[in-house]
Design goal:
Layout: H1 2-12, H2 20-32, H3 36-47, H4 50-76, H5 103-116, H6 122-141, H7 147-166, H8 168-186, H9 188-193
Protein name: Undecaprenyl-diphosphatase
Pfam families: PAP2
InterPro entries: PAP2/HPO, PAP2/HPO_sf, UPP_Pase
């Protein structure tokens, strides 16, 4: 399996002299697009209905659980990144830690899968899930992940999306009340102006 993983990596990894366009595009997908996650959650919370806010909380729980599971996997099994074994030179800076599963893609797909499982947000969830594909390509292209790291991210993200939705009755209402209280304290002025929902 590791041989296949490395073969696929070499097929998808950037050539020795990548074009400026491909490099710029890959860096955007690998490093910048991830900021769409907090932006989407923030907009959904500030402008959305109560149902949308609860959807965002479940999606957030899915992403956080995914990152926690990844940390546990990384502690239990240190899988080196391509540049750690001399298979490539990374085209973006990255710490030499465990590559499996990809944290970027786990967070991205956990949010996407969570939204796609919930009513009213399915189209957004599917769109986000599809956008995860170029993100996965970019992380491999730039030499910081293997293809199987992305397969692991899909598995962890799907599990977390399902689990956090299934068990929402245990945490959703208390976390919603807490988040609403914090929201009113921080955004009281904007709420009074009508710029942000109460």
């Amino acid at each position: 399996m590791e041989s296949l993983n490395q073969t696929l990596f070499l097929w998808l990894n950037a050539p020795e002299h990548p074009s400026a366009f491909a490099l710029t595009l890959a860096i955007f997908f690998a490093e910048q697009l991830i900021w769409a996650v907090p932006l989407l959650i923030g907009i959904g919370w500030l402008r959305g209905s109560d149902a949308t806010r609860k959807t965002m909380l479940i999606a957030t729980a899915s992403g956080l659980l995914g990152l926690l599971i990844n940390q546990i996997i990384g502690l239990a099994w240190l899988h080196p990144r391509p540049f750690m074994i001399g298979l490539s030179h990374p085209l973006i800076p990255h710490v030499a830690d465990s590559s499996f599963p990809s944290d970027h893609l786990t967070l991205w797909w956990a949010l996407a899968f969570s939204l796609s499982l919930q009513r009213g947000q399915r189209i957004a969830g599917v769109a986000l899930a599809l956008l995860g594909v170029p993100v996965a390509w970019a992380r491999i292209y730039l030499g910081v992940h293997f293809p199987f790291d992305m397969v692991g991210a899909i598995a962890v993200a799907a599990l977390c999306a399902w689990l956090t939705l299934r068990e929402a009755r245990w945490y959703l209402e208390p976390s919603y009340q807490l988040a609403t209280g914090i929201h009113r304290r921080f955004f009281g002025g904007l709420i009074a102006l009508g710029w942000v929902r109460e």
